[in-house]
Design goal:
Shape: globular
Structural class: mainly alpha
Oligomer: single chain
Bound molecules: flavin-adenine dinucleotide
Number of strands: 5
Largest sheet: 5 strands, parallel
Strand order of the largest sheet: 3-2-1-4-5
Distance between the termini: 33 Å
Radius of gyration: 24 Å
Number of helices: 21
Strand content: 5-15%
């Protein structure tokens, strides 16, 4: 990328309008592209393009989020006198059309690091060179730029710890930008499509009814969440972050995914909060999770087809199951009907709220690829469709991490025992009781392994295995051995 670091470039003068191309940066605060456009003093409008081509359509839960986030952005931009224009189609074509319609001389955007985003950015720059348009891009998404942070041999980082160490030793994290001031007059805007015509919300059936109670998409919702986390929970973060029945994490992931808050704002606020020694340990742990976000974008930039291709090529030979029962087992997993309560609770939390706790994501992911021996891409696709935070970087990198096929991945032979994981991280069974209500009356000793209870004991609690709740879909020991045997077949395979 030639230019664009905030503050390094004097914005060229242009005669009519400038527009800001929004994508995964749906915020007005600490948005370098918007800020710089408004600083220029020229009339500014905002453009959001819904691509109709591209690598991968968004999933349903992300569509739900996007609808509300665009509404919220439109309100925030209104307060700045910046009209938001919505268009659908080929992103580059639309951009050129809008530039023509508005006689724009200048375009601003925050850089993306996914394949489509990189491609679009390069096209805009090329076109700008040919036409004399002023095109300026910024970094608003990440604390680091994947193309500028490389190993000593000029390659991408493949292991998180050296990546994060290098980041912490090199990076100078800028402060968030000042709040932008409204334009004095609202410029004339070209025709915008109606958001409702995009049909991003589910209708028949409306499976997102549980989302409203859990989420407030948009910049204001993101800041509220950050403030409540920093004022009440950051001190206990490292201690509580692994327990799914506790509200111990920030819940910022969908807001970050859609760029309703920037990592710079989080970094600054987290460091500004008063901290004793314990809080600062917790804060560093929290910031390191932002580091995992950075790392996954780093991987995606350097390996753009990560959602589809094994990072570790040995896994191209992995004997994933393809028998008649696979679809049945996949569906049981998707619906939270595996007979393993912690797995089922996680899958149902996902369906009901569009979110799943990180610890449980690891448990259900491991269960799918190891106990059921189903290709990680099936799990990734389901998460892509059902998570409100479904992220092209974090989702793909995490699934590959779980499968053992990814960079810095969990070793394949580490196979979570879902019963022990449940007993360790949901000891009282509160999480299971919330999302698998048919088991709610079971005593602690049975909540993570109902099949070990006597029939009379179960029926006393209203549980009839095979009727009100399924028998385990696989037996743990046998499934574990099958996974290890499958892994052994690729150990010696050529990459
Ligand atoms: P916090 O614990 O408060 O962490 C703060 C922020 O750090 C998060 O909001 C997120 O942006 C980032 N973060 C935390 N953990 C990770 C991680 N392991 N990798 C990358 N970033 C991380 N996260 C997504 O944002 N989108 C996804 O699509 C996604 N898919 C996942 C799939 C699997 C199989 C697994 C195991 C993890 C996945 N994660 C994903 C990572 C993690 O589960 C979520 O980021 C986290 O649960 C979000 O909750 P939080 O905001 O309360 O996190």
């Amino acid at each position: 990328m030639p230019d664009g670091e905030f503050g390094n470039k004097k914005v060229a003068e242009f005669s009519t309008k400038a527009f800001v191309l929004f994508s995964n940066d749906l915020r007005t605060k600490d948005n370098p592209a918007l800020y710089q456009a408004l600083q220029s003093g020229y009339p500014v409008l905002a453009l959001y393009i819904e691509p109709e081509d591209g690598l991968r359509p968004r999933g349903g839960a992300s569509n739900w989020w996007l609808h509300h986030s665009l509404n919220a952005l439109s309100d925030q931009l209104d307060a700045l006198n910046v009209p938001l224009v919505l268009r659908r189609g080929n992103a580059f074509d639309i951009l050129k059309n809008v530039a023509q319609e508005t006689d724009a001389k200048s375009i601003f955007w925050n850089r993306r690091y996914d394949k489509d985003g990189v491609y679009l950015g390069a096209n805009i720059k090329q076109w700008a060179r040919e036409t004399g348009l002023d095109a300026t891009s910024f970094n608003g998404l990440l604390l680091h730029e994947p193309h500028s942070m490389l190993t000593k041999t000029d390659g991408p980082y493949r292991v998180f710890t050296p990546f994060w160490k290098a980041f912490l030793s090199q990076a100078i994290v800028r402060s968030p930008l000042p709040t932008p001031q409204p334009q004095k007059t609202r410029p004339q805007a070209p025709q915008s499509e109606a958001l409702s015509d995009w049909k991003l919300l589910p209708t028949s059936p409306n499976w997102a009814t549980g989302f409203d109670a859990n989420w407030t998409p948009g910049e204001a919702g993101a800041l509220t969440r950050l403030n409540s986390f920093l004022s009440a929970r950051i001190g206990d973060y490292s201690e509580k972050r692994d327990f799914p029945s506790i509200d111990g994490t920030s819940g910022l992931s969908p807001h970050l995914r859609f760029g309703e808050i920037s990592p710079y704002q989080i970094w600054a606020e987290a460091h500004a909060a008063p901290a004793g020694p314990e809080t600062s340990v917790s804060r560093d742990k929290f910031i390191a999770e932002l580091g995992w976000r950075e790392f996954s974008h780093h991987l995606l930039y350097h390996y753009p087809d990560l959602h589809d291709l094994n990072y570790n090529l040995k896994f191209n030979h992995f004997p994933w199951r393809s028998d008649d029962q696979v679809n049945h087992d996949l569906e049981a997993w998707q619906k939270g009907q595996t007979g393993y309560p912690i797995v089922d609770a996680g899958m149902r939390q996902l369906w009901q709220t569009g979110y799943m706790h990180n610890r449980v994501r690891m448990i259900v992911g491991s269960f799918l690829v190891k106990h059921l021996l189903i290709d990680w891409r099936e799990g990734e696709r389901w998460f892509w469709d059902t998570l409100v935070d479904a992220c092209p970087a974090a989702n793909t990198a995490s699934w590959q991490w779980i499968a053992g096929s990814g960079a810095d991945a969990a070793p394949y032979f580490r196979i979570f025992n879902p019963v022990l994981q449940g007993e360790k991280f949901d000891a009282a069974g509160d999480y299971v009781r919330t999302f698998v209500p048919e088991l709610a009356k079971l005593p602690h000793k049975l909540i993570h392994k109902p099949w070990t209870g006597r029939a009379s004991e179960l029926s006393h609690c209203g549980v009839r295995l095979g009727e009100s709740y399924p028998h385990p879909i696989v037996e743990h020991k046998a499934a574990r051995q099958r996974a290890l045997d499958a892994f052994a077949t690729i150990k010696t395979a050529a990459a």
